[in-house]
Design goal:
The structure is a single chain. This protein is an alpha+beta fold and 197 residues long. It is built from nine helices and five strands. It folds into three domains: 4-63, OB fold (Dihydrolipoamide Acetyltransferase, E2P) (Beta Barrel); 66-134, DNA polymerase, domain 1 (Orthogonal Bundle); 154-196, Helicase, Ruva Protein, domain 3. α2 packs across α3 (83-92).
Length: 197
Amino acid sequence: MIGHLKGRIISKNPPEVLIEVEGIGYEVLCPMSTFYELDNLSEDVLIYTHLSIKEDAHTLFGFITKDEKSVFRELIRVNGVGPKVALAILSNLSVHSLVECISSEDADLLAKTPGIGKKTALKLIVELQDRLSKLELAGNMNKSPDLKQGSNPNSKQAIEALQSLGFKAKEANRMVSKIEDQNLTTEQIIRLALQNK
């Protein structure tokens, strides 16, 4: 398996980059986020790679960060999402945006990616929610913001009540964390959270 390449960029033709390493040219397919980061053609670059082997082709996919590579690998584990679709998703959404999108269950934003319909977007959300939260991303962006210390003690009860109404824990937490007033009753917090949803 080829884990990374360090070398000089010879040419760029979206989404493909040709990288020369010790006299050998590697054709690497990259998401547009990585492609734009590789603007300087003269100095050596380090690209994290994933090698996809099929009976008719060996294809290298390259990423500027380990986070992008990790998320790409999680995406291609989802049934019906191949490497090309995963590249399209990472070209359309940054790693941070994708993690946010999955945790907030925003299927509409995911469905804006070419090649992703609403059905596939929902499948991605269901399959990736747990997996992305367990991923060790460099930015720790996968951790959902917990309630601030010193916040209203009724907030915890309000979150539990929202969960019993059918909201997911992260969504209930997000709804309640938007409320600034620290002196509200549990009932007032729930009412405000539902209005601001």
